[in-house]
Amino acid sequence: MPSYLWVVATYGEGIIHGLLKRLMGSNVAAELLEALLIREALTRMAVKTNGLREGTISEELMKVLLSLASNWGDVVDMNTFKVIHLTGAMTNEVYRLSWPTKAEGAVRTVLVRIYGEGVEIFFNRDEEIRTFESISMHGHGPRLLGQFSEGRVEEFIHARTLSSDDLRDPEISARIAAKLREFHNLDMPGSRNVALWDRLRNWTGKARTLWSPEHAKEFLLDTLEEEIDILEKELSRDSQEVRFCHNDLQYGNVMIDEKTRTITLIDYEYASYNPVAYDLANHFCEMAANYHTDTPHILNYSVYPDLEERQRFIQSYISSTGWHVPNAQLTDMGGGEAYVNKIDFDYLEYARQRFQQYWLRKAQLLETGGHSPIGRVNGLAEVQ
User: 54, 199, 223, 274: which has the highest count of C-beta atoms within 10 A?
Assistant: First the structure.
């Protein structure tokens, strides 16, 4: 017996729908046709998903994909439907889905993002989606194409995700700096208060309910709120520039078009208003990471950017603005994910290293004993 998709591809969706409409009425016909298409799609996709939700595409996601294909005028043949798992995502599972279009040789491609389990305690998913849509309206990043309960479908950007080595390339680094400045200039809705400190307090509270007594003692959890208060007091200045920040500018969240050399920043789960200096400092910390090794959680602080490299990045950042950027603020964003995130990554060890660096550098970066080890280079804060 011919499959439903074969019948639709051969005779056209309109003809089939017309026959069903005559038999059962308009609404029932539409729902039945959609159900048949989805059932057929699910059957064919079960062995072709490279691990997408244990080898199957949910009915809800398939409904979104078929709706998009129909809106674009595509006749989807699931025999040629391809799914490729994209590695490197830290809090989601990401897949590239593609299928041929009516035009000879042309392929339609979208990106499917499956949300990581448990990460909602670190950010509000609804707010993240609103941020995603707003940034898209400003002409940045991919467009939101559809949503389902476990994730969303996005425009696929035909560009290359950066590697850890790319961050050290002077030309690419300068382009990242310029793009980050554009990002900071976005006029985004919502609260413009600094989110950093309350977010750290919230994560500390969550950690108390999740961490074992041994880990709580190791990470000095009982003293962290006091530590956050000290940092907020010492690092908050009237002159600090508060802008809309990405807050997670690691190399996997940066893409480059090899032809135009255009930079795109992606993944806005942690984006919010914060001090500009915080976004810059966190980007520098991310240069110690390489998430595509056998030990992706291990940080190599011996390759942390030196003074010259940091100056070069900041010069590229401010070259067309004349802004004053205050003291770089180094704080940890790592630990609690070890207890809630199911992504295969040793978050606890990652957090341990970030905390170790914080305690090592705290005395250098904060004013102590009436003497500040922080000097000025080109109007910017730098450790002497």
Answer: 274
